[in-house]
């Protein structure tokens, strides 16, 4: 038996390096497909494909938001100054200042121009990449554990609602004989009002045909089968959300048919209550992986 996982979850992990702190936050909601939205610093972009694959393999399905943060906490290596570019900027600015007859702090102006400062290394080091993988694994493990806890709660709620539907289905059987007797009496009264004596054999044949049209035995048997299969899938666990959704649709068909055949106030009330439980089941199933 495998655990049942919700698609809702949250995970966060932090790793501290000598000169930076890397944080990953990941959250997921229900979705029919795998939809990963990932935000990260430019330095990590070269590994986005690998990180997406890690997330997809760990979480399988859901609307997933992943956020990486990188906080500089120290200096690994001082940035360098592009000397040639600075010299060219100064030359051009001096020419312009001379022509315009203005004065100013040219060097200060140059240091704010594009590409003057160059990072010592703008590529992701092996140690940073390992740290990035570690923080991703830790955050994903947290989210999966969160999903597992939520999945246990969902399973408990679903089983309770399945039992409620089965109880009401069985209660319908208690009213079935009364319903059939009432229909028989109604047909007999209608014939008596005609003041004619019908052929008894023909009358019984027509009555049996009519009552068979209203019989819900087959629907009860099929609904019970669907309920048992639903329980079996919950016992099996794993990624069963889509299967449970399909069974829920089949259960709805049987309950609707029972409602159309009921022709009895108490039975109709039980059908409405079963439909209410089934709608809640369908809502919960949408959250199951």
Range of strand content: 5-15%
Low-confidence stretches: none
Number of strands: 6
Strand line-up in the sheet with most strands: 1-2-4-3
Order of helices and strands: EEEHEEHHEHHHHH
Average pLDDT rating: 85
Radius of gyration: 35 Å
Q: Identify the quaternary structure here.
A: single chain
Helix content: 55-70%
Which secondary-structure class do the elements indicate?
alpha+beta
**Main sheet record:** 4 strands, mixed
Q: Globular, elongated, flat, extended or rod-shaped: what is the shape?
A: elongated
Give the number of domains.
3
Number of separate helices: 8
State the gist of this model.
This protein is of the alpha+beta class and 289 residues long.
What is the secondary structure topology, with strand pairs?
Layout: E1 9-16, E2 20-29, E3 34-39, H1 48-59, E4 62-72, E5 80-81, H2 83-100, H3 106-110, E6 117-118, H4 126-193, H5 200-214, H6 217-236, H7 241-262, H8 265-285
Parallel strand pairs: 3-4
Antiparallel strand pairs: 1-2, 2-4, 5-6
Helix pairs in contact: 1-4, 4-6, 4-8, 6-7, 7-8
